[in-house]
Write a structure and sequence with these properties.
Layout lengths: L8 H23 L4 H4 L16 H17 L18 H12 L4 H20 L4 H23 L1
Helix pairs in contact: 1-3, 3-5, 4-5, 5-6
InterPro entries: HEAT_MROH2B-like (IPR055408), Maestro_heat-like_prot (IPR045206)
Protein name: Maestro heat-like repeat-containing protein family member 1
Length: 154
């Protein structure tokens, strides 16, 4: 006769699956070179749909890493080629979604902070005139939020 599992066994399993999935996504985006072209920019398609809100923290972190890698390779001006990728959210949709999420920086494993960091990396792709303003202001805002988090937790 099979053993009965405790009532919260399903929760532990879903948490384990989530943790493994998050780690796999981050490992794929940071360690497997050929995955850059597979994941970038297609992961951006998952930023705006509401049903993926709980996945935004790892998604933003992976996208931020991929975008920074593209910038290091000299692709700063054309990080997101909207003309070649019809399924990508518009710059307006990306900006709106990331700003709305960042309005609650400590919710959902600090997804608001991750959203701000991604927005900072993508600012030129959102709109070129944001470059000077956002490259100065967004890092200060992230620093302030992270400092407040330390005060709130400590």
């Amino acid at each position: 006769q099979p053993k009965k599992q405790p009532p919260d066994a399903d929760d532990l399993t879903s948490d384990s699956v989530q943790s493994i999935s998050v780690n796999t996504l981050f490992l794929l985006s940071t360690t497997v070179d050929r995955m850059n072209n597979v994941l970038w920019p297609y992961l951006l398609e998952f930023v705006t749909p509401i049903q993926f809100t709980n996945a935004l923290t790892p998604l933003c972190k992976s996208l931020m890493y991929l975008a920074m890698k593209k910038q290091e390779e000299g692709e700063n001006a054309s990080l997101i080629r909207y003309d070649l990728n019809a399924n990508l959210p518009s710059p307006y949709a990306l900006t709106t979604r990331l700003l709305v999420v960042s309005s609650q920086p400590y919710v959902g494993d600090c997804r608001g902070t991750a959203a701000l960091r991604l927005l900072n990396v993508l600012h030129y792709s959102v709109h070129p005139t944001l470059d000077q303003l956002w490259s100065k202001k967004v890092p200060l805002l992230v620093e302030h939020i992270e400092g407040r988090k330390g005060l709130l937790l400590g």
